Amino acid sequence: MTTKAELACVYSALILTDDDVAVTGEKISTILKAANVDVEPYWPGLFAKALEGVNVKDLITNIGSGVGAAPAAAAGAPAAGAAPAEAKKEEKKKEEEPEESDDDMGFGLFD
Question: Locations of Basic and acidic residues compositional bias (predicted)?
């Protein structure tokens, strides 16, 4: 039942977003009631809170872009003179941080 409720709330949130209507728990409940879908009363509010302040259209349209695409593009933007200084800072940080291993703590992957 949980999967059905989640899916119904996702679809109703997408319908609201497509119509440029604010996604609220009350509006999700209205769509679910019109579709004769029974869900627990907390689901619409949960989805409304999760999508609060999120631009769903941007989220959907950027789903195909890689996670590292924006940082990689931003890293190429600084002037060439700044790159060696940043590389030195990164090297210092790597040297200062001691490497931790699960083996050191007595934990292993298959323990």
Answer: 86-96
